[in-house]
Amino acid sequence: MSETQRDPVIDTEKPVLVTGATGYVAGWIVQRLLQAGATVHAPIRDPERAEKTRHLDALAEDSPGTIRYFKADLLEDGSYAEAMAGCGVVFHTASPFTSDFEDPQRDLVDPALEGTRNVLTEAAKTESVTRVVVTSSCAAIYTDNSECAAAPGGVLTEDVWNTSASLEYQPYNYSKTVAEREAWAIAESQDGWRLVTVNPSLVIGPAIGGKPTSESFTIMERLGTGEFKQGAPRLGIGMVDVRDVADAHIAAGFLPEAQGRHITSGHDTDLYAASQELVGEFGDRFPLPGSAAPKWLVWLIAPKAGLERGYVARNVGVPFRADNSKSRQALGVSYRPLGQSMREMFDYMIEEGYFTRV
Fold this sequence. Notes:
Shape: globular
Distance between the termini: 29 Å
CATH superfamily: NAD(P)-binding Rossmann-like Domain
CATH architecture: 3-Layer(aba) Sandwich
CATH topology: Rossmann fold
Number of strands: 12
Helix content: 25-40%
């Protein structure tokens, strides 16, 4: 666990709700809550599927806290009422992060927007709730790296909102933007609880268990299976360790003074540079990128890779820059080194059988 400037005290008097509890980021949040002795309420679509909760059950067995499962659906109004009853803090982490979708409205926007609406509307009806923490994203702040240079001071801050994404262009970013805007609208319509958002960049690092559906693992798998062996693009990107993101959530939920949005991004990097953090330890066993692909080549082959050439122009070879000072100062997050996060994630994926070549 990363060191912090302050140590938030987790309130164990009331249960804590974690939506999407079986997910990548949520697993580490649940771990911290259980270790503190909290009772975690975990609403999931099918509580009877033991394989989905096995890793969380293992956490509970080794912790002083307890976990309870409830049946709920992001798109079903009122389905969170039972799970939320009596809870003091609500962590809303459930939202799809994938590039594998058929209908952006149905597969990305509806779960993100309607899920946020259903969870936060229920929180507004629940008197015990005093704090709601929503897992948003840097995607709600920007779409293309070229926007970083256009931001005040040439760097993204919490004051910036994404205005360029749409259903047709980068629908994931659009889904995160409309969902977070809805969260703030609901928060401002009531006075029972305070909303705090955590806005991570690309989340990396080991999972608690299983094979998460997060796009982060897809990207890492593509690196490890040789897709970029001849050259990885210098696609500017922010990266952050999943455990640091969990720490940010805990601080956002339990520090009395926490408020507003928080860019949670440990490193301004690019895909090629990040991949090189793996070469020293894994380069003799895996076909990792050996060089950076020139931008003109990435632009040329973009349509075959499912990318728009405009996206390549605005993001490859264009640096990502974000100001993480608020997360450091207000939430006390201290970010792990990029190489540590990359290597520990890759180790985890080897153990879980993501790669056949070892």
